[in-house]
Amino acid sequence: MSKSASLRIGETILGLATLSLGLFIAIETWMTPPIAAQAVIGPGLFPALIATGLVPVGLQLLYEAFLHRFQVEEFPELDWKAVIIVAAAFASQLVLLERLGWVISGTLLFAVSAIAFGSRAHVRNVLIGLALTAITYLVFHYGLDLDLPTGSYVEELIIMFGGSV
């Protein structure tokens, strides 16, 4: 089998998989009974948006596979050191999440990931990570009424300084 034929088969499989997933999500979203709620946006909005994106992408991949319109590009060299550091930071965040909470563990994840990709502005990395995680915490807590972990150590500090959790 030539390289061109194997690429065409791969593109066809990817196109079929993407199209199938999009159609599956669309059909399941359409068949899900509506929930009686006063909200303007129902639970089917985001799956419908995802399906709306997946179906045309799958069709475009199939179109390109059948017309041989794809280009073979060399894959760039992977920076394994950065990949390993980011994976370790992500695993650390999962471990630290319950104790340190979303804001602190997410800030550490962002700062370490930025360092792994070559940033040397450590204070700026921490401040950006802190801002992003604080904003997501506030959006989830106040906007969506969903609680992200505060962290057992953070809760103890809050109580120690006279606050309530």
Structure description:
By secondary structure, the chain is mainly α. The protein has 2 domains: 5-67; 80-153, no CATH class. The chain has helices at 3-31, 45-66, 80-116, 122-143, 152-160. Helix 1 runs antiparallel to helix 2 (45-66) and helix 3 packs across helix 4. The longest helix has 37 residues, at 80-116. The chain crosses the membrane at residues 12-32, 44-66, 78-96, 102-119, 126-144. This is TctB family tripartite tricarboxylate transporter protein. Keywords: Membrane, Transmembrane, Transmembrane helix. Residues 13-149 form the DUF1468 domain. It holds the Pfam family TctB.
Break the fold down into its secondary structure elements and pairings.
Blueprint: H1 3-31, H2 45-66, H3 80-116, H4 122-143, H5 152-160
Helix pairs in contact: 1-2, 3-4
Structural class: mainly alpha
Helix-residue proportion: over 70%
Reported for the largest beta sheet, the result is:
none
Tally of helical segments: 5
Q: How many angstroms does the end-to-end distance come to?
A: 64 Å
Shape: flat
Poorly predicted segments: none
By DSSP, the count of extended strands is 0
Helix-strand string: HHHHH
Strand content: under 5%
Pfam family, one: TctB
Organism: Rhizobium fredii (Sinorhizobium fredii)
InterPro entries: DUF1468
Protein name: TctB family tripartite tricarboxylate transporter protein
